[in-house]
Amino acid sequence: MGRVAIITGAGRGIGAATAMLAASRGYKVCVNYRSSAESAREVVAAIAGAGGKAVAVAADVAVEEDVVRLFEIAARELGPVTALVNNAGILERQMRVEDMDAARIRRVFDTNVVGSFLCAREAVKRMSTKRGGPGGAIVNVSSGAARWGSPDEYVDYAASKGAIDTLTVGLSKEVAREGIRVNAVRPGLVITDIHAAGGEPGRVERMKVSVPLGRGGMPEEVATAILWLLSDEASFTTGAIIDVSGGR
Asked: Residue 131 class from Cβ within 10 Å (0-12 exposed, 13-18 middle, 19+ buried)?
């Protein structure tokens, strides 16, 4: 049976790098995106150009109906899903907690937390051997912010990623005897567009002095850790959270 991966938020950054690497290692890849349609199509075209198979599917992971449709399309176009990478995530402009309104906090948690729960739910329904599935692996993309707290910038984002850490540990124990492994990576300062969304495109350059390795990470370096956790080489690893943060 072939390996099929759904990677959320795969049009850019860590998600795109993960999609490309997964395809190079034999996965058929569902490239999920919410708004970056052109970028997602470019990822699919690059995979196809290298001899792989991929489809791009628009879906907002914060919307339950979209998540169900995403999994249905992936299964129909590519086959039974055996891997999920919960990568889709957002942050908003740098701000102290005292200035945040409820709408902002809900937006962040709806995508980062509710979206990850919904995708994990659909993956378990399809992968669990208890339900007749083939088993599989889930990797959640957390953030070093879950440990640092991101004061004066993104405490809401950091808190949402703390929830992802807890989801990883709890879900891993729920489904460990059903053929599903659940792990996470915690990227540190990685060079992606997300910093521009927060209002500071040069944030990695400013903060790299705090990284023991002295630089920001590349999306491909995070993707390598994700693919290891998905692979049979990590067959005895579940409930783990790997820091990919340059020692920070």
From this structure: exposed
Q: How far apart (Å, rounded) are the C-alpha atoms in residues 77 and 74?
A: 5
| 157 vs 141: CA distance, rounded Å | 13
Closest CA to 241 of 156, 163, 153, 127: 163
What does the DSSP 8-state code read for residue 111?
I
* pLDDT in the model for residue 1: 59
Q: Which of 27, 33, 154, 157 is catalytic?
A: 157
- Which residues of the chain, if any, have pLDDT below 50? none
**Three-state DSSP class for 115?**
helix
Q: Is 151 exposed, middle or buried (0-12, 13-18, 19+ CB in 10 A)?
A: exposed
pLDDT score recorded for residue 162: 98
* Residue 154 annotated among the catalytic residues of the structure: no
H or E stretch at 66: helix 64-78
- pLDDT tens across 164-208, in order? 999 999 999 999 999 999 999 999 999 887 766 767 788 888 878
The helix-helix angle for 115-127 and 64-78 (nearest 10°) equals 40
Rounded Cα distance between 109 and 114, Å, is 6
Please, what are the domains in the chain? 3-244 (3.40.50.720)
